[in-house]
Amino acid sequence: MADVTARSAVAGPWWWARRRAMVLDVVLAAVSAVECGLEGLPFASETGIPAGLGVLLGVLVGASLLVRRRWPVAVVLVSIGSTPAEMGALLGVVSLYTLAASDVPRRVIALLSGLSLVGTLVVALARLQQDVAADGYRPGVWALVMFAGVVTLGLTAPPVLLGLYVGARRRLVESLRERADGLERELSLLAERAEERAEWARNEERTRIAREMHDVVAHRVSLMVVHAAALQATALKDPEKASRNAALVGDMGRQALTELREMLGVLRSSEAGAGAGSGSGAGEPERLAAVAAAASARVRVAADVVGAGDGGPCLEGLADLVGQSRAAGMAVELSVLGEVRAYGPGVEQTAYRVVQEALTNVHKHAPGARAVVRLAHRDAEVALQVENGPAEAGAEGGPRLPSGGNGLVGMRERVVALGGVFVSGPTEAGGFRVSAVIPAKGASVV
């Protein structure tokens, strides 16, 4: 906006782009008018017209340089027309330069330059022959032609060549300026898109990390609360059972801390790498794109770190998961159908988390209820179902576990992200059922 204001402030009137150009043309037109006016006197004496008319004609011819930028072809035609009168040397040079530097088609430039060259050559040859004859010297024809040709080329070739060079340079500069403006607009769009991607990656990161934290903490902490309540109830009556419950609480706490430590460690290392990358000398679009890529990578690594390491969540750990719920007092049964297969880390982790969250919900919302976990290995998919009956009336007085209300939402997001199907809802018997079907994606027989 500032650049446009500056340009409009120095813009000249009429057809001049700048006041400086207008001043230059006025000066050139004045000098040319004076020159042609003085040359109009000998022209008037030779042709027999009044001297005043010859001077006026010369002034008008020379003043035509005032419109050289607006009508370069017309000025050159005036110069060619005044060539037989032997007036307007400055007019011819400046008009040819202006014509060659303008955006007039090359064919027109070549035609008018050729006419000017021929006209100047004929006039120079005739004047030279008259001068030589007046002095009584009679050189050869070729000598006269050669001398007249040198004079003609000296008056026409330099301005045409200089004008062609200046015009080509001007067009190149304008082209480079347009390309620079286009690149600036493109970089601005890329910066906006990179910023949007970075914001989307940050939001996605928050959502997925929150889901991972929920999956890691909710199940084990829920079991710890259940065991702590059992420990409180049996501490005096059955010290041996209380000791076992205390050991289970400690084991579950250590497992939860280990998983959280692994996840937070990966997040810290990813953030450190992203911060080092953003401190480089890259431009704003590249920096924003790097931030978005680092955030996305951090999300993926954080989401998979628990399932990628040894002993992490996988289908082989379902038996231990069910055993932990049994140890907490839940009557739960595990049923595995089909040929056991190994799946990708994402599929196994998602299946494990679905079962884990479903059992956690049973602990929270249906204490004392009986649960059944079914796992079916199929040709191109793995199917899961966790179903529980209604909560027992005598178990209502157990520990009350808080619920964030996002468990089912998180399970659905995980399954749908892998192209699967997730269904949940109450059963006719008063319980609750969670079902999921996840594509195998390259499973191999164990």
UniProtKB/TrEMBL annotation:
The transmembrane residues are: 21-43, 49-67, 74-97, 109-128, 140-166
Catalytic reaction annotation: ATP + protein L-histidine = ADP + protein N-phospho-L-histidine
Which Pfam family, any one, appears in the UniProt record? HisKA_3
What keyword terms does UniProt attach to this protein? ATP-binding, Coiled coil, Kinase, Membrane, Nucleotide-binding, Phosphoprotein, Transferase, Transmembrane, Transmembrane helix, Two-component regulatory system
User: Any coiled-coil ranges, and where?
Assistant: 173-204
An annotated GO cellular component: membrane
Q: Which GO terms describe its molecular function?
A: ATP binding; phosphorelay sensor kinase activity; protein dimerization activity
Q: Which InterPro entries match?
A: HATPase_C_sf, Sensor_HK_TwoCompSys, Sig_transdc_His_kin_sub3_dim/P
Q: Where is the Signal transduction histidine kinase subgroup 3 dimerisation and phosphoacceptor domain?
A: 205-270
> What does the record give as EC number?
2.7.13.3
* Superkingdom of the source species: Bacteria
In the UniProt record, does the keyword Calcium occur? no
Which PANTHER family does this UniProt record tie to the protein? NITRATE/NITRITE SENSOR PROTEIN NARX-RELATED (PTHR24421), NITRATE_NITRITE SENSOR PROTEIN NARQ (PTHR24421:SF10)
The name of this protein is: histidine kinase
This chain's source organism reads Streptomyces mashuensis
Q: What taxonomic lineage is listed for the species of origin? A: Bacteria, Bacillati, Actinomycetota, Actinomycetes, Kitasatosporales
